Amino acid sequence: MRFEITLPLTHRFNDHSRITFSLEDGQKPIIFEEGIHYLDGENGAGKSTFLSILSLLSGSVGKAAGDESGKIKYGREAYADQKFDYLKAAEIRENDFCIFSQDVFFLPGLTIKENYRILNRMNDAGGFPSDKYASSLSGGEQQERFIRILLQENKKVWFLDEPFNNLDQRNRQRFWELLKTSYSESPKIIFLIDHGMSNIAENNEHFILYTSLRVSSQNREDDPAFLKIYSIQEPIKFLEGLAVGTKKHPN
Amino acid sequence: MERLVSNVKEFWELAFVCLKMLFRESVKWRFILLIIGFIFVIICNFYNHFDKYKKVEIEKKNILQEDAFKIFFIYSLEPEDYENLVDELQRKLPKFNSILIRDALIFQKNLFVDIESHEKASEPLQVMYNLFDMENFVNGFEVKDKKNFFVSIKNEYIDYNGSNLEKKKQEKRFRNVADYIENFSDNLSGKMHSQRKIRAFREKRNLILKHIERVPHNKEINPYLSKVELIIPKNILNIMFNLSRLSTNRIISGIQYDPSDSKIKIRQKFIEVPEGLKDEESYGYRSWFPRFSPIYMKGSIGTVKHLLYELMKVDNAFMEYLKDLHSREHYLFSYEKLDIMQFKVDKINSNIKSAQRYFLFIDLIIGIIFPFMVSFFSFIYLKKEIAFLLFHKNKLKLILWVFYTLPLMIMLVLKSGLYMIFFKLTFVAYLVIPLLLSFIFASMIFWFINIWCFKEFFSNQLNLYEIFKGK
Fold first, then answer.
1. Stretch B406-410: mean pLDDT, rounded?
2. Which architecture does CATH list for A3-99+156-244?
3. Which residues of B12-49 are buried (b: 16+ CB within 10 A; e: fewer)?
4. Which residues, numbered 256 to 275 in chain B, qualify as contacts with chain A under a Cβ-Cβ cut-off of 8 Å?
5. B12 in contact with A at a CB cutoff of 8 Å?
6. Nearest chain A residue to B9, by CA
7. What value of ipTM does the predicted structure carry?
């Protein structure tokens, strides 16, 4: 599986606001294959928006996709294909995508176990106690449970948008360990956003700049932001380093 | 089959989850208030309907029980005319389940009617008594003697509509009737050969007419028969007819008058319709023409079921027949009654239909608005949750189906529960079909409303991320 994106890619939020991703040098397609892809950029650079479009949470698909909005292809599925629609999008999300979208969120009124059952596996309790509500846990504990609920090893693409908020050192290492184990067993396409890594991305041996996207919106026509996408080299080794808390860990 | 079972299981699990989210601490009271509001509106609508139902049922019952709409007096000018009419009526009335009452007639605005005891009186005659408020009069008319051959009868007549007249006018009206009776008896005595017998006969006649007492009718007069002046027991004529057939001695001994209680003591069979006249077409005293003869039609107004109620229905064929008789100079004593009947029935039917329409219309509106409110409420308070759910699960159709069926199920349970708790099952049974139709119609409309409510999730313009972020 891979993503193939033809730029410029425009996403309209409504009639008055839009955001466009384009390449500085030519408009050749960018391709994301198995591996870890780190998205870096200042606030408002459109990192989360870019991921939300790739993960089929935002953007126009099928007949609603205009010619000027760019083209995204996931495997054989072209988002702008006339036969592609919101139902197909939902099917792909369920089968292939693991989406961690910044905020920890539990379905309200339900226990953590019920959240697990409805979001992950209907017939599995996931080892959660049946009477624990998220509100009874600390922020870090909530995040840890949230990650356990959402991440499914069998899925091919993981969108990880700032998964480390509220996690302490120990839990971060556990997270990297989980990621490493999962990746080792079945390599995936992982998109990662984490502000903590941005300081080291430019000088770290694992981070290779793949592309830099020019991000313009109606508010920033004259002052565009840039979204840098790094490909992580030797991802297992990289994750191993993070999992044991080596010197390579950004924090 | 396996897939169906799995889908049903998944549906209930998702419905349960959605309900739990709607009943979460921060939202549950708003949701409960919405349901309480719905219950309140249903109860108001039903009580309003029930109130109208009661009123219209009372009106309907009054009309169905109105005896004036069961008895119709038909005019005949002369005996031949009457005989032809009777001949025709005997052929035609059975088709309408109707009957000619031969025990009564109206002559010169006075009703002559046989007074018979409750056990002996036919149903039409009893209705007639009821129509003229004569029950007490009839019940006290005849007291059987110990020997059982003799009876004591009241020597009275009813002044039906003359209670407010001056006494002189009242007496004059009776005097006119007395003259007819005298003429009638003179005709009978004219055939007698013995002067002694004639004297005896006239003496008895005078005895009756001299001592007969006026009973004022102090109750409300039936508006359809307000022209009737006096009600005379036709038994007086029977007595005279029977006496005229007796020997002089039996005439003298066969009838006695006791001034102390204004009663006539007489052999029972003398007050009854004379033997041999019962089956004759001319029965009813040939000389008394023109006259109005009563027809009894129990089902002139019936009922037919219509949705929640029974509508009233005039027997049009019978009415047409009466109008036809009227046009052939067999006038109705009160022709306007036919139009009034039709008018009243139309008015009540219109009220019934309007009450039904109002009730079902409101029920339909509630049936659309309530699920719409629940659906809209769910969208407002659960859109972030649904968006989040759709990040991970392909449950679009299931969600739409849950929020379509959930409000409908809540509504169905609440409505049927309320109706069963507060009202009699028999009454609710009338409502089942129309309410079911209303429910189905509301469900059909709600299908599109529900799609509209959740349309943000059903678009090729994906915006789950924006919804989740509250943008």
1. 91
2. 3-Layer(aba) Sandwich (3.40)
3. ebbbebbebbbebeebeeebeebeeebeebbeebbeeb
4. none
5. no
6. A122
7. 0.90
